[in-house]
Specification:
241 residues, alpha/beta, 6-stranded mixed beta sheet, 10 strands, 24% strand
Length: 241
């Protein structure tokens, strides 16, 4: 039977050590090919939720399933295969400073065993698309914050992941670059990638009509497209019709 929900949380709680719970009774399911924004004030639990999704953490209680598999039952040897299906854009980039922009982006393809010709073609095309065609050989310390973010995003999407997770992916970019990269995420989503983007940028949320997952003190609510947090609807043509 085909997988319907690529992500499932059931009464999930997460705490670090003996501290208070960061996530509290979080339950939701995301279908394959869905697109959600993840919002909440600083400290609400967004990064912790993403860490569960890319298998950096295990829940303290409750159950998390990815691709219909309970993450606490996945054998250690299977974890790399699962992780290769997940693209992650970290807020702090996590680029390898001794490698060029090209080689940072090429890493997932090399791990997956792609030929050098295919790597050359795909990496070059993507870096040109994100505006870094003249910086293929540049190393991260020589790049601006926005350029580093573009490299990190290209690395996350180069192998066309089944799930794409992004933590403030446009935070270091001007509005024009942010919109351009959002369109890249939308294009991936149209091809079947399930996308979750953590952001504080309300302008992006208004510009791109996707539902919002909102965290308050570790508790999650999912709001439909066009619903604002003060319970007023955004004034769009579709809603006025």
């Amino acid at each position: 039977m085909p997988i319907q929900n690529v992500i499932e949380f059931d009464a999930v709680g997460l705490r670090y050590g003996q501290g208070a719970e960061i996530l509290k009774d979080v339950s939701f399911s995301l279908p394959i090919g869905s697109f959600h924004f993840l919002t909440g004030e600083s400290g609400a639990g967004k990064t912790s939720l993403l860490s569960l999704l890319y298998l950096a953490q295990s829940p303290t209680r409750g159950h998390v399933k990815l691709f219909s598999r309970a993450i606490n039952n996945i054998p250690r040897d299977d974890l790399p295969v699962i992780r290769r299906k997940i693209g992650v854009v970290f807020q702090d980039f996590r680029l390898l400073d001794h490698l060029s922009a090209f080689d940072n982006v090429a890493l997932p393809l090399r791990v997956a065993g792609y030929s050098q010709d295919e790597i050359q073609k795909r990496v070059t095309e993507l870096l040109i698309w994100v505006g870094l065609g003249s910086h293929l050989n540049a190393k991260p310390p020589t790049l601006s914050g926005g350029q580093k973010q573009s490299v990190a995003i290209a690395r996350a999407v180069i192998n066309r992941p089944h799930i794409l997770l992004a933590d403030e992916p446009t935070g270091n970019m001007d509005d024009k670059s942010a919109i351009r990269l959002m369109r890249l995420f939308v294009e991936l989503n149209k091809r079947g990638t399930t996308v979750v983007i953590a952001t504080h940028n309300e302008g992006l949320i208004k510009a791109f009509p996707f539902p919002r997952m909102h965290l308050v003190n570790g508790r999650l609510t999912i709001y439909p497209v066009g619903y604002s947090l003060n319970q007023n609807f955004f004034k769009t043509e579709s809603l006025r019709a």
